[in-house]
Amino acid sequence: MIALEPLASEHFGTAAKWLSASDINQWLTSEWRGRMVEPALIGIAVRNKRNRFFLVRCEGEPSGLVALADWDPIDKVAMIWYVRGEPSFGGRGVITDAVVQLVRLAFSEFDIEALYAWIMEDNHRSRRVLERAGFREAGRLRSATRHEERQIDRIYFDLTRQD
Ligand SMILES: CC(C)(COP(=O)(O)OP(=O)(O)OC[C@H]1O[C@@H](n2cnc3c(N)ncnc32)[C@H](O)[C@@H]1OP(=O)(O)O)[C@@H](O)C(=O)NCCC(=O)NCCS
Question: How far apart are CA 29 and CA 31, in angstroms?
């Protein structure tokens, strides 16, 4: 069973450890990419009203994070992002399930009308997560991110409440 819970301070250390791992943060926005994250920074991010962080538990065990960022309650739009923190939970669709749950929460509880996400063009796993969760490719921003010393494209996906 996969369950989400708001990220509480006792898990800031775990989240910081996950987000400090280069095999994870290399795929994230430049804000997180290639840096060591202290638990205090997670605390600052959690207090930002434009963010919502959720711990993902699989069979009761912390396994990853799903989050909203850039939440604009006037335009009713937010960005969704996620990481699978523990390697042992890979290949089981845990984060896909968690993303589906966060999408439902966003549309039913947070009065959000549109969600979007962006991936680096070669992030095939993340593409699958979004496609399985019902997102559609919305467009490409060419040469708009960096991965492994290369300038590559961002691919945007979106999902609306109407979908
Ligand atoms: C993206 C991420 C959350 C996916 O979680 P995961 O536990 O690896 O997910 P899964 O193992 O269930 O794989 C997801 C899908 O990718 C597929 N996949 C796995 N490895 C793959 C590969 N090398 N190439 C292509 N597809 C792959 C799986 O088959 C699965 O597709 P399916 O649901 O159709 O079977 C995880 O890889 C991660 O944390 N990556 C780093 C952070 C990141 O990229 N976050 C997203 C930023 S936009």
Answer: 5
